[in-house]
Known about the structure:
Elements: E1 2-5, H1 10-21, E2 27-30, E3 49-51, H2 53-58, E4 68-71, H3 83-103, E5 107-113, H4 136-149, E6 157-162, E7 164-166, H5 179-190, E8 192-196, E9 203-204, E10 206-208, H6 209-220, E11 227-231, E12 237-238, H7 239-249, E13 254-258, H8 277-281, H9 291-305
Parallel strand pairs: 1-2, 1-4, 2-3, 4-5, 5-6, 6-11, 7-10, 8-13
Antiparallel strand pairs: 9-12
Amino acid sequence: MIIVTGAAGFIGSNLVWALNRQGLTDIVLVDQMDSTDKFKNLHHLHFRNLITPDDFLISLDSYNSATIVFHQGAITDTTLSDGARMMQQNYDYSKQLLSWCQRDHRRFIYASSAAVYGDGNNGFAIERQSENPLNIYGFSKLMFDRYMEQQLSHAQIVGLRYFNVYGPQEKHKGRMASVPWHLMNQARNSSTMRLFEGSEHFKRDFVHVDDVIKVNLFFMDNPHLSGLFNIGTGEARTFADIGEILLKLMPFSSLQTIPFPKDLKGRYQKSTCADLSLLYAAGYHEPWISPEDGIADYHHYFINLGGYRPVFFI
């Protein structure tokens, strides 16, 4: 049995999709169906059960046959001001789940975030001097990373610091969806793609969700590996670059500059770029999908399937 938390979300549902494609269906999905669109990420997947995070936590002993947990569930809204709720969900809940896994030598692969690095002025290497989160979301992820590092590893524990992930199955994320999603949606609705002022200077390490899933599966296939690892391409591209890529795919549209939102000032990363040295040292050497190829692939899903994965049959 495999447990996937956050399974109805963006990365979680793509992970279940990939597991299904390997013929794996004995999967328990853990998620809160708090969005009316989330079910669309699940209706084409194969799994044993769907349970809420709270109910899962109080019935853990019913799932003792599980051998590995992919903990993708978290509050990911970087603008959330309820620090107590953020810490309870992203830190306390994760600690309880890790404790259960450690008790029975169950493997644990979880989602951390590049938000732990803050403005990036000290780089993006996995070391203390680089870690300086700008918001409570990044802080909650950093605190669990540090908690994890203090644990005696009775089984595999892997933390994956995701950079700027984009791709199918993120429609429900709303404001927190990726830049490519927002720009494609704007082009479809108004023929105008809107970028913040200064977008020619804002850089992100844009990584396709398929690459994120490949790394998760790499660690599933290598149970002797543990630790923290960055997941990005190692290349930063500007928001303006992404706009130009989409202009070629959606030539009926145009680019427009809009004022930078006041509520994001001082809480917004100017640049991200993953330091992948530890991941490569662990033996991962798959090529990364370029933004040109990845956004073209995403555009296909967006236009033909509404941004969702297609149904397939096992």
